[in-house]
Design a protein that fits this description.
- There is one protein chain.
- The protein has 14 helices and no strands.
- 73% of the residues lie in helices and 0% in strands.
- The longest helix has 28 residues.
- It is globular, with a radius of gyration of 19 Å.
- The termini are far apart.
- By secondary structure, the chain is mostly helical.
Length: 230
């Protein structure tokens, strides 16, 4: 998929623009959100370009443990930044070998994993509720940064395909400015970074996000009600 390769090159050259910083974990969840949404939209006719990469990395690491490619790279090359840049080198080698030998992973397993992580519905309307109940299932751990990366990848994929934003997606666009106003911050930091700054850790920040998001949605409903009554 040329789109992914082009996107990865852009992220490598300017990671701050897409995922805030050179981080293998942020890249992992951003790419997951991006590819998951493209798959749901039927825009991956050539298949998943990441297919088989997890298994390939397990062979590189000489381990039978079922771990994601990001976790394996981070283990082999400690440090989020170091692992981030190492990924591009490894992925290029993987693609070369895949083209030469026709490496294929289990399509059934990959399809099941995609369906579990990115069901075919609006991520802002329904999947946020699922993540709130079971963050570990969707994010691996309670992390507001991982949630942010998934949402960014999801939205970018939809924009690239030319899918108009849904009403819940449009509504979410105002969350950034609302958080800035609530905390009195106008520094250009993302909503996730602002919330994380005012909480103890990623876990508490994710919990706080859902509190704030519910408050934000209720506020919008109240404003709509006032406008209709007026």
């Amino acid at each position: 998929m040329k789109e992914l390769f082009t996107l990865l090159q852009k992220i490598k050259e300017n990671p701050v623009m897409y995922i805030d910083k050179p981080s293998i974990t942020c890249l992992d969840f951003f790419v997951g959100g991006y590819l998951g949404q493209l798959s749901d939209l039927g825009s991956t006719p050539e298949g998943d370009p990441m297919e088989g990469f997890d298994e390939w990395m397990q062979e590189i690491a000489e381990t039978n443990l079922i771990k994601s490619w990001a976790r394996i790279i981070l283990f082999l090359f400690p440090g989020e930044r170091n692992a981030f840049y190492k990924f591009f080198e490894l992925f290029e080698k993987f693609i070369e070998q895949k083209d030469n030998s026709g490496i294929q992973g289990s399509e059934d397993v990959l399809r099941l994993r995609r369906d579990l992580m990115f069901p075919r519905f609006d991520i802002y309307k329904e999947i946020l509720g699922a993540i709130k109940k079971r963050p570990g299932m969707y994010l691996g751990t309670s992390s507001i940064t991982r949630l942010d990366m998934v949402l960014r990848g999801y939205s970018l994929a939809r924009r690239e395909v030319g899918v108009p934003p849904t009403e819940p997606e449009k509504e979410f666009e105002g969350f950034q400015s609302w958080v800035e106003e609530k905390y009195g911050i106008n520094s250009g930091q993302s909503w996730s970074k602002i919330i994380l700054f005012y909480t103890v850790d990623e876990h508490e920040a994710l919990h706080k996000f859902f509190e704030l998001f519910e408050e934000y949605l209720n506020r919008n409903k109240s404003l709509e009600l006032d406008e209709n009554c007026g």
